[in-house]
């Protein structure tokens, strides 16, 4: 809806997908700023939505996933952002540059630093 309302502001200087990501980025930043006033999010797996056959494997995977997510949540905002854009949304570095306004070389550095921090905090997970 936000993109539709701001469609007149699209200048065509970047790809439409980058422009849409930037709108989503701004909305997410706004929501994050207000998140401290809301109740914490409960993942589906914590609510009992698991359907796998091996309960031990499910429990271990859930613990591993929780540890990884907690480690990612501990990263500084900019590192967390580039990690999620690169690995979860599979954005290429050039697109991350367009979305965040961070130079491409710096995005590479942030990804490397984030991986090092995650490696240190997670150890052998």
Could you characterize the architecture of this molecule?
By secondary structure, this protein is mainly alpha-helical. It contains 6 helices and no strands. The protein has helices at residues 2-5, 16-34, 55-74, 77-88, 93-100, 104-122. Helix 2 (16-34) crosses helix 5 (93-100) and helix 4 (77-88) packs across helix 6. The longest helix has 20 residues, at 55-74. It is globular, with a radius of gyration of 18 Å. The relative contact order is 0.11.
Name the poorly predicted regions.
none
User: Structural class of the helices, strands and pairings?
Assistant: mainly alpha
**What string gives the helices and strands in order?**
HHHHHH
The major sheet is characterized as: none
Mean pLDDT: 80
Strand content: under 5%
N→C terminal distance: 40 Å
Detail the topology: elements first, then pairings:
Layout lengths: L1 H4 L10 H19 L20 H20 L2 H12 L4 H8 L3 H19 L3
Give short descriptive properties of this protein:
125 residues, mainly alpha, 6 helices, 66% helix, globular
Summarize the structure.
This protein is an all-alpha fold. About 65% of the residues lie in helices and about 0% in strands.
